[in-house]
Amino acid sequence: MIQKHPEIGGEILAIISELPDISIGAKYHHEKYDGTGYPY
Q1: Residue 39 in contact with residue 4, Cβ under 8 Å?
Q2: Three-state secondary structure readout of 3-34
Q3: Average pLDDT estimate for 4-19
Q4: 3-class secondary structure, 2
Q5: What does the alpha-carbon distance between residue 32 and residue 11 come to, in Å, rounded to a whole number?
Q6: 15-32: string of b/e by CB count within 10 Å (b at 16+)?
Q7: Counting beta carbons within 10 angstroms of the beta carbon of residue 6, is it exposed (0 to 12), middle (13 to 18) or buried (19 or more)?
Q8: Which of 8, 26, 33, 34 gets the highest tally of CB atoms within 10 A of its CB?
Q9: Which of 13, 18, 17 is closest to 28 using CA atoms?
Q10: Does the reported pTM lie above 0.90?
Q11: How confident is the model at residue 1, as a pLDDT?
């Protein structure tokens, strides 16, 4: 359940038109270079 927060946060922040890339940062902030992070 807790691992869904990056996707939810990314969706919420996507509506801020002044900062279009902020949703990308929120969505992928738990990803790791070796591929063991989440959500992907």
Answers
A1: yes
A2: HHHHHHHHHHHCCCCCCCCHHHHHHCCCCCCC
A3: 94
A4: helix
A5: 21
A6: eeeeeeeebeebbeeeee
A7: buried
A8: 26
A9: 13
A10: no
A11: 87
**Cα separation of 31 and 19, whole Å?**
21
Identity of residue 1: M
**Structure tokens given for 37:** 């992070």
CA distance from start to end of the chain: 15
CB atoms within 10 A of CB 2: 7
Query: Mapping DSSP to helix (H, G, I), strand (E, B) and coil, where does residue 1 land?
Result: coil
Q: Which amino acid is present at 30?
A: H
Q: Half-sphere exposure of 31 toward its Cβ, with a 13 Å CA cutoff?
A: 12
